[in-house]
Amino acid sequence: MSNLEKYRNRLLRCTRCGVCGAKYDYFAGIFRVCPIVDHSPGFEAYYPRGKISIATEILEGNLTYSEGLANVLTACSTCMNCAQQCGSTDAKGDPLINTPRIIEAMRADIVDLGLAPEPYVAISSRTEKNYNPYAEPHEKRTQWAEELDAQFGKSDIVYFVGCTSSYRRKEIATDTVKILKKLNIPFGILKDEWCCGSPLWRTGTRKLAEKMARHNVEALKDAKTVITSCAGCARAFLKDYPVIVGDLPFEVLHMTEFLESLLDDGKLTLKEPIAKKVTYHDPCHIGRELMMYDPPRNILNAIPGIEFVEMKSTRENAWCCGGGGGLKISNPNMAINVATGRLGHAKEVGAEAIISSCPFCKTNLFDAIKKTGSNLQMYDITELVATSIKA
Questions:
Q1: Which fold has domain 133-263?
Q2: Beta strands 353-356; 377-380: pairing state
Q3: DSSP one-letter string for 251-265
Q4: 47-84: buried (b, 16+ CB within 10 Å) or exposed (e) per residue?
């Protein structure tokens, strides 16, 4: 059965009003909705409403999957802003027309039919072979941790690092470990950590994503608390894994939640001042997906010297960085263009630096900074905490 079939009843309830593509509310901080709209060829098929129409026509038998259609479906970062702004909800309060989930279902159908675009095939192949999407040797995954004398093996608290922090944004991983060590918090790192599977799930390779999930849950079964500095990993554990394996046998916390709890308990003190005017970019994975808005802001406001300012579009209305949902691997120029728009939002409020809590966000926004020659600085929140911390 088609992965799309489960959404039939919901698709038929869409009124095609178009709010999912464009909506303006100055006082609510909503300036447009879909980050793809401004950077697409301009055809309706690239808009959320257009993709809903495509899904409906497929279910009605008036349209069939093809390579061309598959390429159109790659143009989405699954940022959830369309579902957020739609306003239609079910009895549980969840989005009634959840366009990103519908797009992911169509992508899964495309993969099952052997029509996956080359970037999707490549990321699947690399992950299956190396357990990470970057084609990096699995045996080098924890090399950075070994250099810091991090503990491996069983522990009540396990730091699940994630692929991007292990191979590309190592500063996030190393600063996370430095924070935990400085606070004398016992923790372990998995020697055989695999990709969380989120990039695979977003791009339709569900069977392999499930394999990754089952391996990680088994490897973490002795842990009481799993913390991760990656927003994508947090979202995978908290939203995708329960669908695959049921209730998890351990607690999962994003690093910002964990640090906020330490602040509240008086176990973390931030004393070294950082004289910067900063703004915070909400990652879609822990923002609209997991509603984690206050912890990072509370942390930033606890750092002396920080002048914190909000961008106009923030929290549930935040503009996507463009780095997620497989967009960066399939449409890299589009991803950078979306991120460039976010840089503009930061400049508007006079920020010197953008802070986020997701290695994907840091990577794509940093790439946009380099491409545009912007003088903005880009940091993950762990980097600021590691600088300001005083045990």
A1: Rossmann fold (3.40.50)
A2: parallel
A3: EEEEHHHHHHHHHHT
A4: bbbbbbbbbbebbeeeeebeeebbbbbbbbbbbbbbbb
Coil, strand or helix: which one is 279?
strand
The CATH number that domain 5-116 falls under is 1.10.1060
Architecture of domain 265-388: 3-Layer(aba) Sandwich (3.40)
The predicted-structure confidence for 307-342, as pLDDT tens digits, reads as follows: 999 999 999 999 999 999 999 999 999 999 999 999
At 189 the three-state DSSP class reads strand
Q: How far apart are CA 140 and CA 167, in angstroms?
A: 9
Do the domains at 133-263 and 265-388 have one common CATH topology? yes
Mean pLDDT of 276-295: 97
For residue 29, pLDDT beyond 80: no
Q: What is the pLDDT of residues 118-132, one digit of tens each?
A: 999 999 999 999 999
Output phi, psi for 48, to 5 deg: -55, -45
Q: Where are the domains of the chain?
A: 5-116, 133-263, 265-388
Local structure of 308: helix, strand or coil:
strand
